[in-house]
Structures are given as C-alpha cells and as structure tokens.
Amino acid sequence: MITQLDTSNLDAKFKKLPFRGDLESFVDEVALLKPKAKFLLDNDCVSTDYVLNDTTQKFDHVQCVYRVKVYEGGEPIGSLQTYEEYRQGKKVQTYGVESFRIVKERGRSDTTSSMHKKVAIRNAKKFLVARAKDELANQIGNMVKDRVTGLKANYENAVTWSVNSTKVAFDYAVASYHARIDGSGNVTLSANNAQYTNNIKHVDDNVTKYLEVKALSDMIEAKHGYGVQAYTDGSYAVLSLHTGEVTKYQHFEDIPADIGEKLGMFKVIDQNEPYVHLGIKVLEFVHYIVDGKTKTEQ
Questions:
Q1: What is the pLDDT of residues 90-113, one digit of tens each?
Q2: Helix, strand or coil for residue 118?
Q3: End-to-end CA separation in angstroms for the chain
Q4: From the CB of residue 32, how many other CB atoms can be counted at a distance below 10 Å?
Q5: Rounded CA gap, 189 and 100, in Å?
Q6: Are 151 and 59 in contact (CB under 8 A)?
Q7: Nearest residue to 261 via CA among 288, 239, 293, 285
Q8: Lowest CB count within 10 Å: 3, 100, 212, 223, which one?
Q9: Closest alpha carbon to 237 in 74, 53, 10, 51
C-alpha cells in the first residue's frame, strides 16, 4: 500500500490483519485525488468475515480490515469500504463510500456502493469534501444547542420525579384556597416536609444541576458564548454564537485566552457536568464555553 495510514488508535493485535478484497488499491487511488486527506485505522475498521475453507468445506472466522476512515483538517469526512454483495444473482466485490453528504432512503442512509471501482472513486471525489464554514457553524451550533436543551429536560424530569408531586400539588391547592379566602394572596409550603421527599439532598442536587444547565441554555438562546470542536490532529474550530462565525486554530495555544482558559479546565471535568461560570462538555470533543473573563466559582 502506497498511502500512509494513521494506525495510532488501532490495537497492536490488529495491525497485521489483511485488507478485505481490493480495499488497499481503492484507498490508494482515492488518495491521489484527495491530497489533503488523511487516512486512519482504528478498531472500528476491523470485521470478522466467514470464509469457506476449500479443504474442510466449513466456514472459517477470518478477521480483516474492511474500511479506512478519511479525515481532512482533522475533521472526519467519511470512510472507504469494500464488501461482497449479491448483484444480479452473483456475489461480487463492491466499493463503498461513506459520507455525511450522502442521504439515502434505503439501506445505509450515509453510504453508497458500486461494483465498479471507477464509479466508486467518482463518488469519493464528489462526497468526501470537508464542511464549508457555514456548514461547520450549523453543525457545531446544533450540537451545542440540542445537547444542552436535552440535558435541561433530563434534569427537569429528575427534579419532578425526586419529589412527591401529588402531595405537593394537593397541599398547594389547599393553601391557595385559604389564601384566596383570607385575602393574603400568598402560599407557603414547608421546605423540609418529609412527605414531599425522603431525600432532600438528592432533590437539592438535582435542582442545583437544573439551575446551572438552565442558565447555560438561556445564554445559548441569547447567542452568548462559544461552541468549540476539537479535532484529531490537535486543531480546533471555534464558533461565536453572537456572530455565527467560525474560526479555526491549528493549536490549543492559538485559541484566545478567555476561551482557552475555560476549555483547558474540561480536561478534568466529565461530560454533561454544567458549570455556569465555565460551560459544559456536551460530547467528548465538543464544548460550550461561556462568554467573558474566566471566573472562579464561589
């Protein structure tokens, strides 16, 4: 194989596996058309095939590399694959191209395949294209907004289910009735009523997290802060929610200090832990960072 493959994320036991069919040649020919692309192997690229043994006439389990992932500028843009499929009643080798730009209604929605290598190479040239900046802005913005909105709903449900809502509703209705009768207009419920919950600390923890993530959600809705996506080559894409502009940085040290200082703290913070003074890690390589100078939580 002529093309250099990044195998740093591939387990050592898989590094000498054969490639399925004509995958090596397929990758080499695509690489000539995509000089900026990088090609990567990891454990997801390994498959177990059932191959008929001519001697025993039984099927052996044979591990092989069936696909190669493709990156450009650190961004995953798809993969190249080979299969054996039935076409017109015959079992033939086919060449697959996986890309976020492919949208199909049948079969795998993000993959197209052909028994003709030249057709598959044309598909690779057409579909294996990195996102333009406006596409990247939409992708990062949607990931941040959707994940934070979903997390807010999860904590809202957690708060609701951590108390006896039936008892709270009943007491509120009775207290409201008396407040209207005496004209006070105010209702007071006990903060430490064991009938409302048997674990006040658990309720408080859920409410605290809900308020943190709600504050972050409100900032995102107001278009404050930044969406940050990290790539495998050590580069970063930073989306300003205020302007909608994406800026790419080759190294972490190039990121503006107000963003970089907060981003660096998430190396020791788990995914989905909201901090109103920092932001939140919504995915392993995607963060929402709040606007402004870095503050120390009081």
A1: 889 999 999 999 988 887 889 999
A2: helix
A3: 57
A4: 10
A5: 53
A6: no
A7: 293
A8: 223
A9: 74
Q: What is the pLDDT of residues 233-252, one digit of tens each?
A: 888 999 999 999 999 998 99
* Rounded Cα gap, residues 178 and 110, in angstroms: 61
Q: Residue 16 in 3-state DSSP? A: coil
Hunting for tokens 């690779």 — which residue is that? 124
- Residue-wise burial string across 214-248, b where 16 or more C-beta atoms lie within 10 A, e elsewhere: bebbebbeeeebbbbbbbbeebbbbbbbeeeebeb
The C-alpha atoms of residue 168 and residue 196 are separated, in whole angstroms, by: 6
Judged against a pLDDT cut of 70, whether residue 48 lies above it is answered with yes
Answer yes or no: is pLDDT of 297 > 70: no
Interacting residues of 270 by C-beta distance below 8 A, sequence separation 6+ = 281
Residue with tokens 């859920």: 206
Summarize the confidence of residues 221-244 as an average pLDDT.
Answer: 92
Between β-strands 286-289 and 226-230, what pairing exists: parallel, antiparallel or unpaired? Answer: antiparallel
Q: What pLDDT does residue 282 have?
A: 94
Quote the CA–CA distance of 70 and 79 in Å, as a whole number.
Answer: 5
pLDDT tens digits, 130-184: 888 899 999 999 999 999 999 999 999 998 888 888 888 998 899 898 889 888 8
Q: Does 291 score more than 60 pLDDT?
A: yes
- What is this structure's pTM? 0.74
In single-letter form, the type of residue at position 162 comes to S
180 Cβ partners below 8 Å, 6+ apart? Answer: none
